[in-house]
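Please decode residue identities from the backbone states below.
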């Protein structure tokens, strides 16, 4: 009886794609299976339209040697010294494993570079089975056992098929938006409106809320939700956009269950204007995944309107274009000879002057 005779395994493992997506601004994740135990590696490469110094999809090759750039197996297996080894051991056939790729190896293999944010990449994977390891580590071997020359490995064609199934993966946008323009005319052109002209560093939406400067409301009390409930907003795509506000809140009280501040902007009053923004970022599947400006950014002073440092513009005057109304209180009195006294009121702070004139038809030089 001859025990422990191995039947040759000459078939390379088969890679099965389960899912692939960008999970952050610097990480691509590939979930796959093998049809037998083994090890799988994945690496990022540039699309064919990208320039050096990185390997592109069409440059992946089977030719090896010191002068052969983008050798398929060597490039995908990466270099631990350059931080470009991204692999997973598959201990059981048809079991999901995740491979997270966060760097790309340069074509000359001298350095690895962190994946660029919001950038499109292709992913190549390579796999080899555990045939040699299993055979060499068997508890029982036949007298004529000869160690296999090596594991079975996938070829470039199989890797290209998987790469095509994955397609292009774009790293995510995880950076909050910021204002590149935040201008408010002061005093305002209208005596009933504040107009905010703004631009963002990316496509997104801005929200603003006016607060009377004499209201006692502090900067630290201005939460993002309070800005949102004012419901003054505008979308930004390019150039600039405007938000026109004529009330503290742009809401219909009959449509809400809270105490809305229905108060038209007052002429001749000062307002602090707080603005906040979110972008229009999406995930790898195209679903909304917006990034939000920080609350602290909203509370910071705008500084330079053409290069804003924050979202707060304090002390904006709403113009007063209406003349004061003059009203007499009581009748004209003559408290003594040569003196006339009038008691008057204005409907706003101001200064009043009076002068005596003679009636029409009276004689004299006056």
């Amino acid at each position: 009886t001859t025990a422990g005779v191995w039947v040759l395994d000459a078939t390379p493992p088969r890679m099965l794609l389960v899912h692939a997506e960008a999970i952050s601004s610097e990480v691509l994740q590939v979930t796959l299976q093998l049809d037998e135990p083994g090890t799988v590696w994945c690496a990022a490469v540039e699309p064919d339209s990208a320039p050096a110094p990185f390997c592109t999809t069409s440059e992946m090759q089977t030719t090896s040697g010191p002068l052969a750039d983008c050798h398929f197996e060597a490039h995908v297996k990466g270099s631990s010294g350059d931080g470009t080894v991204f692999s997973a051991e598959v201990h059981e056939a048809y079991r999901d494993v995740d491979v997270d790729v966060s760097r790309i190896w340069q074509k000359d293999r001298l350095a690895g570079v962190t994946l660029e944010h919001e950038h499109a990449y292709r992913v190549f994977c390579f796999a080899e089975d555990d045939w040699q390891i299993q055979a060499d580590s068997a508890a029982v071997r036949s007298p004529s056992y000869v160690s296999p020359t090596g594991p079975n490995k996938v070829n470039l064609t199989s890797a290209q098929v998987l790469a095509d199934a994955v397609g292009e993966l774009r790293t995510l946008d995880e950076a909050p938006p910021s204002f590149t323009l935040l201008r408010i005319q002061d005093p305002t052109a209208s005596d009933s409106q504040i107009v905010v002209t703004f631009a963002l560093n990316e496509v997104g939406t801005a929200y603003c809320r006016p607060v009377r400067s004499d209201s006692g409301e502090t900067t630290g009390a201005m939460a993002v939700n309070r800005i949102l409930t004012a419901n003054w907003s505008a979308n930004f795509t390019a150039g600039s956009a405007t938000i026109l506000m004529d009330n503290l809140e742009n809401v219909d009280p009959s449509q809400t269950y809270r105490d809305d501040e229905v108060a038209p902007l007052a002429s001749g009053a000062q307002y602090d204007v707080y603005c906040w923004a979110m972008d229009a970022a999406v995930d790898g599947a195209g679903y909304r995944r917006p990034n939000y400006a920080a609350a602290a950014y909203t509370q910071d002073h705008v500084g330079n309107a053409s290069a804003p440092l924050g979202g707060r513009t304090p002390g904006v005057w709403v113009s007063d274009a209406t003349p004061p109304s003059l009203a007499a209180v009581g009748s004209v009195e003559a408290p003594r000879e040569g003196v006339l006294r009038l008691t008057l009121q204005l409907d706003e702070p101001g200064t009043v002057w009076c002068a005596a004139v003679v009636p029409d038809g009276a004689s004299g030089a006056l």
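Observation: DSSP finds five helices and 22 strands in the chain.
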